[in-house]
Amino acid sequence: MARISLDHLRHAYTPGLAEAGIYALREVDHVFEDGGAYALLGPSGCGKTTLLNIMSGLLTPSEGHVRFDETDVTMLSPEARNIAQVFQFPVIYDTMTVAENLAFPLKNRRVPKDEIQRRVADMLGRLGMTQKGKRKARGLTADEKQKISLGRGLIRSDVAAILFDEPLTVIDPHMKWQLRSELKALHKEFAMTMVYVTHDQTEALTFADKVVVMYEGEVVQIGTPEELFERPQHTFVGYFIGSPGMNVLPCALESGEAVVSGQRLRLPAHFGPAGGQMAQGRRIELGIRPEFVSLVPRGEGLPVTIERVEDVGSEKIVRARLGDLPVSAIVKEDASLPAEADIAFAPHALNLYSDSRLVDTTPGAARATASGRTA
Ligand SMILES: Nc1ncnc2c1ncn2[C@@H]1O[C@H](COP(=O)(O)OP(=O)(O)OP(=O)(O)O)[C@@H](O)[C@H]1O
């Protein structure tokens, strides 16, 4: 297994696009640690597949380098990089049996016969396909074929990394959970470097130790599921992760207060220096997750109009409007809702954003804030 370093990668699909400044990847500079389980998460078109294909060698980046440990592999083919790939749709040999398909990558590497038999039997068990080992792959369901593709990727122990591109798209919903758990178990057991592309936050958060969130050709945050939830480094992360996503409220800062939709909100004390030194002309926003918004009696917070309440099991999602801004709150199922409500924000959970990037409001960070950098 290898540590994969992406060194100042940029990619435009044609020289014309590069000249026009249209990059599918704008700047990616990141290290995937040896043995880590990563998810590349982001909406359609944000550059996930482009990045994965650059890592696998299917695509050569316009700029920058890819290194596997200390070796520069930027110009090497996928075969020369020794990686396993699992694609969105199954890639298997219909005329071979299920077992032969699984054995194929091992035979190619001249693994001894008895070792192949042992590993194939083990993988068939893990995939729940022991009874189907001798069946021809032709005629299997799309689910089953994709499970074989996964098995073929996972059966080799000598690969630098395993790259998955939305591998569960064709899998039946109730099987997805089982296969994800199996992938996670295999990762724990063999500590393989795995990179898993998805646009589904549940898939990303349950599979990965670290989630790499991409937006418009850039990595906007790399973090554990908890970090992405608690401290979104970019408003997009706040909006994309969570259901409903983080409330993002445009505001102006004035002597320790935020003016949100014409209402004044006293900010936690530590926001003072950061807010005071914020450069003029920036787009300033407050971020607060619905889990940290509460409904309080009129006069105790910011006045809102409740527009609707959605019942979601043990909780209710309250959709309200603060002036012209939509705000969501998550409250307990049995919480009573005042007819005329205000909203209050848990101070510890308030985040401040400048041009979509999180402002470090911890004491001592004012200098970085003033120059526009974020932590
Ligand atoms: N072969 C290509 N030629 C030109 N532009 C491309 C090509 N492939 C992708 N793009 C563009 O590059 C950008 C990133 O695409 P990419 O497929 O990497 O995104 P993605 O996040 O994987 O999306 P999806 O989840 O829909 O696969 C998009 O704007 C896309 O239109």
TrEMBL record:
Can you say where in the cell this protein is located? Cell inner membrane
**Does Nucleotide-binding appear among the keywords?**
yes
* InterPro entries assigned: AAA+_ATPase, ABC_transporter-like_ATP-bd, ABC_transpr_FbpC, ABC_transpr_MalK/UgpC-like, Mo/tungstate-bd_C_term_dom, NA-bd_OB-fold, OB_MalK-like, P-loop_NTPase
Q: ABC transporter domain: which residues?
A: 4-241
Q: Which GO MF terms does the UniProt record name?
A: ABC-type ferric iron transporter activity; ATP binding; ATP hydrolysis activity
**Where is this protein chiefly located?**
membrane
Q: Which UniProt keywords apply?
A: ATP-binding, Cell membrane, Membrane, Nucleotide-binding, Transport
Keyword check for DNA-binding, yes or no.
Answer: no
CC terms in the record's Gene Ontology section: ATP-binding cassette (ABC) transporter complex, substrate-binding subunit-containing
Give the record's membrane topology. Answer: Peripheral membrane protein
Report any Pfam family annotated for this entry. ABC_tran
Among SMART domains, the record links this protein to: AAA
**The organism sits in which domain of life?**
Bacteria
Protein family per UniProt: Belongs to the ABC transporter superfamily.
Q: What is this protein called?
A: Carbohydrate ABC transporter ATP-binding protein, CUT1 family
